[in-house]
Amino acid sequence: MEKLGPGDPQRIGAYRLLARLGAGGMGHVYLARSERGRTVAVKLVREELAAQEEFRERFRQEVQAARRVGGYWTAPVLDADTEAAVPWVATGYVAGPSLQQVVGHDHGALPERTVRILAAGLAHALKDIHATGIVHRDLKPSNVLVTIDGPRVIDFGIARALETVTDGGLTRTGALVGSPGFMAPEQVRGDRITPACDVFCLGSVLAYAATGALPFGTANSGVHALMFRIAQEEPDLDGVPEGIADLVRDCLRKDPAARPSLDRVLERTGADDTVSDGRALDPWLPSALVAQLGRHAVRLLDAEDPEGAGSADEAGAPGPPAGRQGSGPHENPGPGPTPEHAPAADESAQRPALPPAPATAPAAAPAPPPPGRPGEGPPVNHLPTMVAGQGAPPAPRQLPAAGAVPHPQAQTPPPPYPAYGYPQQHPQPHPAYGGLGSTPPYGPPPYGTTPPYGPQQPQQPRGNGRSTALLVVIALVVALAAGGSVYALMQDGGDDRADDGAGPTQGTSAPPTTPGPSPTTSQPDTSSPADGTIPTGYLGTWTTTIDNADGEHSRSLTIQQGEPGDTILSLVADGPTKGGGDYHCVFEGRLTASPGADGALEIGPSSVKVGQPSTACTPGAATEVTLLPDGTLERVNTSSGERLTYTKQ
């Protein structure tokens, strides 16, 4: 969440904007309040999309359908103006973090009972959505919000409007719309989409909730390779509790007809005994998460108009809404996965100034951390919602929409508010939660005008084939390192924090001072001893330092021998705090899979073993550790792409 900038509207329709929640492939999302004081989330469509009649017509239809969705398990569509110069839609606020935030950062893998109730709630939500003729087609952890009463599903149906547009504005059949790690095989192939597509996505979400890992792995080896695995290979369900493993496996059947119906899912989860009328009959979350939600509710009460009592919109008549010229229409760390964090960064960025917000918008390695172990976000599995054939979303716009009341704020907006709620979206580039921005040692943030899959390549012509042959072509294209590009359209929550949290202060430009060994042409030792799977070259203690305005921050990383599931990594972070004094953090991480052909180690979400002070150390996201040819060791946050290089002692 960010403060409103000079290019943001001050009002949209009857809603006073409080903060910016993010920007996605469809547009910008804002936290707002109605004139009667209700907190909502408002999505403002990108002007270039609004100019395309095909998109506008589909958006109009999808909003109408979404408003018919009833039940207790979804965030309601409250208001919309699909005829405005720049259309918008307002949805109810859900006071809770996304499932991505809970599993990827706050808590880690959830216990079996919690996952079973999660499955029941999501099945009820999908039934309500399907009853109106909508297929969600983008169910993923960042589109599932966690509340005291149960899960809530957001962003149903609206994203389907993106199917109508290509760069040339032409209607397209069989477009790929979805998030790579949570697509169904028929989405990958461009086949006909039915409600069974959402059942497959449900299986992926449940596997992630139970393990902290995705059943088909990450997109680290390429998005096309990930989609090939989804369409052709069996899921990896290691770590899924035995009591729900069969259900998850059945949901992940390749053949849509072989997947269970939602009624059958409800039967197999014992929904009649656990949920009713939109709420769990008994407490369903671990106590630590319940306490977190309580703290969030308290923060919500402190949210106030950023302009204060004397703001222009309160002093006079409300200005015209964004996109309407002259006439107005009718009405959790927050971002996503992050690595461990120690205060080598601006600690002020860690304090939520505003609570999270909901809206229609929205976010691993194998083997997960055990239930209750704080985790980090899944690596590149929460890739933003994709639409094949489109480029990356534009940077945040600098000018208000036509007819919008410009926000009277200063030149440069302050750092974003870390918060969670509805919706969860990938923010546009900005200093990350905890003060870890795009400065060294972690490199540039993964999102923005550059597609999250790497530097943008010239887009090449794509065919409209919808058969399995397309999948084969995609696989060949990946193998030959050629072919068309698939870009992400940002739609879910994320954040740019770096390795194990101890990063430089915002604005710091000095790279880490890592005393490196003299260059060598010899290759590192990647052989594995008999008593474990980790190549011997990784074993031992590695160090680096980070210099910023607060002083020097040391990092000491130790890797020991072990098997998948064992704790093999320990990181000690020491340094000065911003307000004076020192911090000492110790983090641990588990090996999630046997090293592949390249020898890289996949480390799951980390946990804090020592935190002095406790507020200075927070767990981090899944990482990948690689032994470089020059004898140094590189640790990369697989979610954000941030990296840090260590030297062996």
How are the elements arranged and paired?
Blueprint: E1 11-12, E2 15-23, E3 27-34, E4 39-45, H1 47-50, H2 53-67, E5 77-81, E6 88-92, H3 99-106, H4 112-130, E7 144-146, E8 151-153, E9 177-178, H5 185-189, H6 195-211, H7 223-232, H8 242-251, H9 262-268, H10 271-274, E10 275-276, E11 279-280, H11 287-301, H12 312-315, E12 386-387, H13 468-479, E13 540-548, E14 551-559, E15 567-576, E16 582-590, E17 601-603, E18 607-612, E19 623-627, E20 633-637, E21 643-648
Antiparallel strand pairs: 1-2, 2-3, 3-4, 4-6, 5-6, 7-8, 9-12, 10-11, 13-14, 13-21, 14-15, 15-16, 16-18, 17-19, 19-20, 20-21
Transmembrane segments: 469-490
Protein name: Protein kinase domain-containing protein
Keywords: ATP-binding, Kinase, Membrane, Nucleotide-binding, Transferase, Transmembrane, Transmembrane helix
What does this entry look like structurally?
One of its GO terms (molecular function) is protein serine/threonine kinase activity. Pfam families: Pkinase (PF00069). ATP binds at residue 43. The chain has a nine-stranded antiparallel sheet, with no helix packed on it. A six-stranded antiparallel sheet has the order 1-2-3-4-6-5. A hairpin with a 6-residue loop joins strand 5 (77-81) and strand 6. The chain has helices at 47-50, 53-67, 99-106, 112-130, 185-189, 195-211, 223-232, 242-251, 262-268, 271-274, 287-301, 312-315, 468-479, and strands at residues 11-12, 15-23, 27-34, 39-45, 77-81, 88-92, 144-146, 151-153, 177-178, 275-276, 279-280, 386-387, 540-548, 551-559, 567-576, 582-590, 601-603, 607-612, 623-627, 633-637, 643-648. The relative contact order is 0.16. Residues 166-176, 309-321, 323-339, 345-382 and 387-522 have low confidence and may be disordered. Helix 4 (112-130) runs antiparallel to helix 9 and helix 7 crosses helix 13 (468-479). Among the domains are: 2-92, Phosphorylase Kinase, domain 1; 99-164 and 179-292, Transferase(Phosphotransferase) domain 1 (Transferase(Phosphotransferase), domain 1), CATH 1.10.510.10; 536-648, Lipocalin (Beta Barrel). The chain is of the alpha+beta class. The chain starts with 10 loop residues before the first strand and ends with a strand. It is 20% helix and 17% strand.
